[in-house]
Amino acid sequence: MAWIYLFIAGVLEIVWAFAMKQSHGFSRLVPSLITLGAMVASFGLLSLAMRSLPLGTAYMIWTGIGALGAFAVGVAFLGEGLSVARLIAAGLILAGLVLMKLSAQA
């Protein structure tokens, strides 16, 4: 269950990052509330995952899912640029996540 909690927590990190962008500095109510709710849920699920997963593994996977997801959302929905260098950077993050998962004890 820890890995499922961690994956959902990572997806919620993407949600709150996107909602925060849409809140325009917390000046719009609905995106601000979505940001705060997704943050609380994401942290809560991360804490559940950390009951059995090592700190470094859980935190790296959580932030990596959020980073890659936010990158993808930015490109797909916000018109952010896509370059070879950005794709290589994302690929390196993904490679680190895969290696961390393969080397995890729990």
From TrEMBL:
The chain crosses the membrane at residues 33-50, 57-78, 84-104. GO terms for cellular component: plasma membrane. It comes from the Bacteria. One of its GO terms (molecular function) is transmembrane transporter activity. One of its GO terms (biological process) is xenobiotic detoxification by transmembrane export across the plasma membrane. The keyword Repeat does not apply. Gene3D superfamilies: 1.10.3730.20. Its main location: membrane. Keywords: Cell membrane, Membrane, Transmembrane, Transmembrane helix, Transport. Pfam families: Multi_Drug_Res. SUPFAM superfamilies: Multidrug resistance efflux transporter EmrE. It is found in: Cell membrane. The keyword Transmembrane applies. It is a multi-pass membrane protein. Belongs to the drug/metabolite transporter (DMT) superfamily. Small multidrug resistance (SMR) (TC 2.A.7.1) family. Gdx/SugE subfamily. This is Guanidinium exporter.
